[in-house]
Known about the structure:
The structure is a homodimer. By secondary structure, chain A is α+β, with helices and mostly antiparallel strands.
Amino acid sequence: MSQRVLSAEIAEHPGEPVRLAGWVHRRRVLARVTFLIVRDRAGLAQVVVPAGVPVPPEESVVEVTGTVVANAAAPGGHEVAYGAIEVISPAEAPPVELFRPALEAGLPALLDHAAVSLRHPARRAVFAAGAAAVAAFRGTLDGLGFTEIFTPKIVGSATESGANVFTLDYFGRKAYLAQSPQFYKQTMVGVFERVYEAGPVFRAEPHDTSRHLAAHTSLDAELGFIRDHRDVMAVLTRCVRAMVEAAGLGAVRMPDEIPVVHFTEALRLAGADPDEPDLAPEHERALGVWAAREHGSDLLYVEGYPMSKRPFYTHPQPSDPRWSNSFDLLFRGMELVTGGQRRHVYADYVAALGGDTAGLAGYLEAFRHGMPPHGGFAIGLERFLARLSGAANVRETTLFPRDLHRLAP
Amino acid sequence: MSQRVLSAEIAEHPGEPVRLAGWVHRRRVLARVTFLIVRDRAGLAQVVVPAGVPVPPEESVVEVTGTVVANAAAPGGHEVAYGAIEVISPAEAPPVELFRPALEAGLPALLDHAAVSLRHPARRAVFAAGAAAVAAFRGTLDGLGFTEIFTPKIVGSATESGANVFTLDYFGRKAYLAQSPQFYKQTMVGVFERVYEAGPVFRAEPHDTSRHLAAHTSLDAELGFIRDHRDVMAVLTRCVRAMVEAAGLGAVRMPDEIPVVHFTEALRLAGADPDEPDLAPEHERALGVWAAREHGSDLLYVEGYPMSKRPFYTHPQPSDPRWSNSFDLLFRGMELVTGGQRRHVYADYVAALGGDTAGLAGYLEAFRHGMPPHGGFAIGLERFLARLSGAANVRETTLFPRDLHRLAP
């Protein structure tokens, strides 16, 4: 038997016999001929089958042999003239119609039948883009001397935020699912200076919204020997630029220098009360309009959020400790990434925690024994893909989402 | 202030003023001079400080300015003649002595003080090798047309093995931590044909051994349109070869073709009873000796394990269904990787499960709607590093291990 040829490769074999293997994506039975569209990991190929030859139903796994023929009307300019077809695995009628250009099922049906609906080329493209974006994230950081780490997802204390944490029976003890690798990535700055992790994080999110999931993939980075959060933003900008390019989900206006506004200025630009402690969604939207109009940019950094709204490890703004050396990166008026400089002096942690360091000994040990100024960020992969692709719901950019109601498939 | 220069770069700046930043790795105070060793992410640099100048204690974070001088006795052939030193972060005396060539603390102390002990160059090297090995795993598979996936770690049914599963309170319902991405990676073969995932897996392992952890990093791959498990082994061989080279933890004898023996032959070679249902550790050791002697190979595939000892999704050996199309890869007489061909026909799953498909609908849907012959494997990252580095305990190759007793740091 000849070597398998992928759909995308048939144009390289004009006039030659080839063997395709894949799924029956679509059958179009006409009076004189049947068009059989075979789907494989590379795309679609058209096979021309004489009338009367039985063609197996959609989603059957088949091997087709035939001869490559040029046809300007076929996808890729070539098609395969039928020689023989063998059914490798039979298939029942699919729960969603995969051959239509756009899936017509609602989101619950798509998610319930993920095993099949994810095969749709448009769904598949989202997750292929995600894989490419993660590779770009890693590639950018590898090039900057970062080291990949793998940190625990089961933790002994729920102290990072306290709320929205999943509780686990750990050999008869109580344990928790990590809400982020924050403590560990900071600790590892003491080892490798520059680290990243792409892994799952867990939030027992009681809100049933289009933006919240109980678990998502977090792209975390942390780096030491920075001057301040601006050095972190410079690394994030390089990552986001590479990720957007690699994902290829559409054009993003991203000038060489992404504009930066201070939180106090952001409130003013958004027409908000200057005493507001945070940016409301309508403020972020207004800032998105402003950045597009004034800077031709889909991206905007807001820095200097009030210390009162940021976690205890946040480094204050040296010139005015009401504000912090933290930032958000807004994408078209919605938060995409959060990050900032962290505290690095042990005594500052003890003070920020009000002396209550219970459960944090293993983390704070890093600061007792010398830590450089450092900071980092976390990109939510599914949110990144949703914003980039224009998906209304982050469930559309998660392979098998988990939320208040959904625990399967 | 001049640009920071890394320790590994000072030889590029002979006679020039440089600025180092890092940790005080060691101080050697002599009568006329103090040698200050600065550690940064690239390695170590020696700074020559005049007697009488105070030098901060070990693990302090410092910036040192000075002039690069050639000195054949210094690491890398160059050292820095002291100009000035600034303490960025103070440090208490470390709980383990990091400046000694080998850490002298016992494993519990190393793990309790991971935040500091991981800074030791020998410890750090293990995890840098791990990062390189994972990059090689991904790079090999990317080159073969695989797509990276991110699958759920919280699952609704504990059906894969039933035993040793962590139970979770999921919004008032019972849920479980995934013991492997097995079901999801198979499902995704229906989407991308070839997929991989590097992520955490969880086992509520009640045994307190040097080989078992409650969580580890699993490097999973799965591919469709295979003839049988030998195609899976070919991909695994490429991965392992690339990972060994990238890790650089020592020489591994790995011929172009890794020897393969059938389970029945393995029993005979190991001098075991031909009715044994599995290989005992002493059998694996004997096989390791045999492979080294007969094939000059540290690696040996054993294929064809009895169906009775393999999970329900295992594909039988077509010529004799007592055996399976599964395999183990032994490394110097110990199991390193497990893999095999999986069933791909829906009716075969229903039969293998004895009709009890409860909780598996979302998984089995993939097979109802056309799945190609496929298979895959899972490499335990920490076990791989332990075997390669000769570590006696897999806790030595895990950043922050989790076991029956350990939940922190």
